Amino acid sequence: MTKAKIPFQNVLRHRFSSLIFILIFAVSSFVLYWSFGYANLISSILNDSFYDSYGDMVFFTDYFEKDKIQTLIQDPSIERVVLDREIQGILENPEKSDLVILSELTPDNQNRLKRYIRPVVGTLPKNTEDIVVSEFLKEGQYQLGETVTMQISTPDKVINAKKFKVCGITKSSGWKGLGSAFLITEESMTELLASNRHANVISVFLKNKNETREAKKEIYQGIKKTLEENKLEIKDSWMTYEQMDKLASFSGLFASVKSLVMILFFPLIGAVSAAIVWMYAFRRRKELWTYSALGMTHGSITVLMAFEYWILTLTGIITGLGIGSFTSYLAEKANIWFRFSYTFVSPLLTEIHTGDIVLIVMFLLLCVTFWIIPPLKRIVKAPPFSY
Amino acid sequence: MKKIILILLLLWIPSYFFALSGEEILKKSDEQWVPDICSYLLTMKTIESGGDEKENQFKGFKKGSVKNVMTVVKPKKISGSVFLRKDDVIFSYYTTNHKLNKVAYQSLFMGSLLSYGDVLATELSFDYNVSKTEETGEDYILTLTPKQGQSGYGKVVIQIGKKDFLPKKRDYYALSGILLKSCVFNKIEFDGKNLSYMEQEFFEPLKERKTIVSLSSVEILKDIPEKYYNENFIQYLSGLK
């Protein structure tokens, strides 16, 4: 029990060296927190958002009657066919007119896309007057609370317009118009189109998400043929795996961020902590020899010292993770002011899982153990007054 | 007394039977000022709220109600780009990307207050039905709604002079009833029977900017080759600037 107290007492007694050690590990765990969190976020967007937005395949078409399409698209492999409305319109405020893509938020797609659609300011649309604008192409053009007018062409080819109030600003909304879609409620869309019978996007979800590419392609070609036979103009269409293939290298890069950071950090943190341990433990060699003179074995002294550094490492990790979590919270609130490259649009957010926390803690403890034991052993083994 | 009644009846009966319907007024108005087959120079000047001006100019060829093609003369950087209305479809071809695209009727036309439909669909009697006809002392006020299957505004209210059947003002409304824009005809001049110059001013209630459209160098033609209205010929038309 007395032995167990020693490391804690030493942590307090050698305040300066303790503080430096804590600081190193606080910074390390903070950097790991953000690297892991942001890499997770981007990876999940890249891997899942296409599927969550449009299922296994999607067809962007002219307006069609929903009932007719539901009857036409029948296949035992299909779990469900989702018919949405995603239209082009002219958004106007007194200063500007812009061509924008307008999507409806239905309870179904909102449930699928809630991970991605996170306004950086304001809320998602709740009332028929509400609209969420995207900052992607229209940076700083529209403000929260501002009234804008949306002008579109109905399925009957008649021009319609509706006034909206900006209720939220988003920087990323999944692939459902990532970066460019403006979002309104289902009721607003019905009001704008003067119809709830029509839609123009067909998303197909298969029963087996892991169906072979050949099988998916066959279903895709079958649906395409059916639509063409029924004289429905297909403006664009694709299968989700085709989009994933295009993003494969990008996705792979983000997936490997965790490994890269750990490979880089292992020697970096190790070298710094080993140097500190060497320097401070060397200065405390009289204390170590006293333990030895009191009958403690070299192994016990090494464990005693290592325990002290583990305490410091854990304190640093907790501090770093705490700061990481707090800054992540602040960043989410402050995202409206941040500007990033438009090559890949995403708000600055983190997505941290319990596994990541465990991995960060284990990695840093392993790192400190690996790098401090050799200098400690060397000091302990050195004969007294050898200098 | 009988004679007076008889005279009044004689005066009233023809006016009752020969009064023009709203459709006829609109058709007559279109025929009065819009030439059937012609070439023209269209100039569009957009004046921003700060006073900045932007001018676009087009050389156009109109044939009947549903064939109209224009090539850009100004600005120079997109000179030769083509806009074509053929039946119900509007095409655009820009020399910057050399791509032929279908364009929506309501899409904004080159940053002006006008839509492609405003520019390329000049004869309202072809695209709209008259749903209401009213009269004031000097004018007919017609309320137009788009014909089934035709692209157009939810409602257009047009003011036409009773004497000359020339349009004076148009108000364009969305289906929801929101006033989108208005247009006033500043000048309509004729050289004999044929239109020689026309000037329209478009403005929106929402914006402090306006677009002045003028039609000049109108040349009445007997015919225009059909290939002018063939979208596959559009890149060759691009040389007609």
Structural features, described:
- The complex is a heterodimer of chains A (387) and B (241).
- By secondary structure, chain A is α+β, with helices and mostly antiparallel strands.
- Chain A folds into 2 domains: 177 residues, no CATH class; 152 residues, no CATH class.
- Chain A has 12 helices and 11 strands.
- In chain A, the strands form 2 sheets. In chain A, strands 3, 4, 5, 6, 7, 8 and 9 form a 7-stranded mixed beta sheet that branches. A 4-stranded antiparallel beta sheet of chain A has the order 2-10-1-11, sandwiched between helices.
- In chain A, helix 2 runs antiparallel to helix 9 and helix 2 packs across helix 11.
- The longest helix of chain A is centred in the N-terminal third of the chain and has 40 residues.
- In chain A, 37% of the residues are buried.
- With 241 residues, chain B is an alpha+beta fold.
- Chain B has a single domain, classed as outer membrane lipoprotein receptor (LolB), chain A, CATH 2.50.20.
- Chain B is built from 5 helices and 14 strands.
- In chain B, strand 7 and strand 8 form a beta hairpin.
- The longest helix of chain B has 17 residues.
- In chain B, 32% of the residues are buried.
- The chains are: A alpha+beta (387), B alpha+beta (241).
- Chains A and B meet through strand 3, strand 7 and strand 8 of A and strand 9 of B.
N-to-C span of chain B: 70 Å
Structural class of chain A: alpha+beta
Contiguous low-pLDDT stretches of chain A (5 residues minimum) are: none
Instruction: Tell me the strand percentage band of chain B.
Output: over 45%
Which pair of chains forms the biggest interface, and how many residues does each contribute? A-B, 22 and 22 residues
Please identify the oligomeric state. heterodimer
Tell me roughly what share of residues is in helical segments of chain B: 10-25%
User: Would you give the CATH topology of chain B?
Assistant: outer membrane lipoprotein receptor (LolB), chain A
| Order of H and E elements of chain A | HHEHEEEHEEEEEHEHEHHHHHH
What value does the Rg of chain A take, in angstroms?
A: 29 Å
Cα-to-Cα separation, first versus last residue of chain A: 34 Å
Shape of chain B: globular
* Global mean pLDDT of chain A: 84
Strand tally of chain A, please? 11
Binned strand content of chain A:
15-25%
**How large, in whole angstroms, is the Cα Rg of chain B?**
20 Å
Q: How are the strands ordered across the major sheet of chain B?
A: 6-5-4-3-2-1-14-13-12-11-10-8-7
Largest sheet of chain B: 13 strands, antiparallel
Report the total helices of chain A: 12
CATH architecture of chain B: Clam
Question: What is the total domain count of chain A?
Answer: 2
